[in-house]
Design a protein that fits this description.
single chain, mainly alpha, transmembrane helix
């Protein structure tokens, strides 16, 4: 009971903290004159992944690699199968392929990089450096390519920043939003890890399974909120772009930082099963972007069914 309450309280604090941090960061970026393009590309992209960052770094420092890695891999799977599927069921999604093809390709390449670097059974500091260098390269490439006028991807990332409403308006309100958001994220990560580890031990479930499922879904709630709101507003490019950006930041940024702080051995089940599901989900998304450019309700339902099957297999076979 205690572990379950701690888990729920942690998820709630992470969600509220992530929301507060994003709104404070976007308001601060606007206040100092940062372009909507850079705000959407970096601030919103990093902001929605803040819960994953705090939880994975915390888990890595406390030598809980199964949760640190499982959180990232599980979040990337959930972002596509669960969140994108949910958005498509809410509203069939039609996207501009030119706005999303680059990021879709980067998600697949980042997934392949993860599989390649983790082939030896662990991620070390050299691997972390490669991940982080890849993130810097992606951000430079994206900003330079989108700085030109009327580039669809630039318009999409600028729209991501415009999706944020009810922002703090004064300097002190921005500061409070940032400090409170950061405090909630740190406190929420501690509660989440305490509850997740305790629940895993009490139920005889591996930490990897808990990290890949419950923790991953809990830390993905900010992405879910942004994407669902965008889908309801018929802004499909923003909904899909948010998911792609989050998956890129998760693999290249968060996993890079976590592995740099503490080498991360890979759970056998991740190497045998989960990393391939992650790659398959990325492939499905890219196939969608490169072919029909429309995700119907039945296709969204198929993605949700795929996620339900993944969760079922996670708790029964492994």
């Amino acid at each position: 009971m205690l572990y379950g309450l701690s888990l729920l309280a942690g998820i709630a604090l992470l969600t509220l903290g992530g929301e507060s941090l994003i709104r404070g960061a976007v308001a601060g970026a606007r206040r100092v004159g940062v372009s909507p393009l850079l705000t959407g590309l970096v601030v919103v992209g990093f902001g929605t992944s803040a819960p994953e960052l705090v939880v994975s770094v915390d888990a890595a420092i406390n030598q809980q690699p199964d949760i640190a890695v499982g959180n990232i891999v599980g979040s990337n799977i959930g972002n596509i199968l669960l969140i994108l599927g949910m958005c498509a069921v809410i509203c069939p999604m039609v996207v501009q392929p030119l706005a999303l093809r680059r990021d879709g390709l980067v998600v697949v390449l980042a997934s392949l990089l993860f599989i390649g670097l983790s082939f030896g059974g662990a991620l070390g500091r050299i691997d972390a450096g490669i991940f982080l260098a890849g993130l810097v390269g992606y951000l430079v490439w994206a900003y330079i390519s989108e700085s030109r006028q009327h580039v669809p991807a630039a318009e999409m990332h600028a729209s991501e920043a415009e999706e944020m409403t009810k922002l703090p308006t004064t300097g002190w309100m921005i500061a409070i939003a940032l400090v409170v958001g950061l405090g909630m994220l740190i406190g929420g990560s501690q509660l989440l890890l305490f509850g997740a580890i305790g629940l895993a031990q009490a139920m005889g479930i591996s930490e990897a399974v808990i990290g890949l499922t419950i923790v991953a879904v809990g830390t993905s709630l900010p992405e879910m909120a942004v994407s669902v709101i965008a889908a309801l507003r018929r802004h499909a490019d923003v909904a899909v772009g948010n998911i792609l950006g989050s998956n890129i930041f998760n693999l290249l940024g968060i996993l890079g930082i976590s592995a740099f702080l503490q080498p991360l051995p890979l759970a056998p089940r991740v190497a045998l099963f989960d990393q391939w599901v992650m790659l398959g989900a990325a492939g499905i998304l890219v196939l969608f972007l490169y072919t029909g450019m429309r995700l119907s309700r039945w296709e969204g339902a198929a993605l949700l069914a795929g996620y339900a099957a993944y969760i079922t297999l996670s708790f029964t076979i492994f």
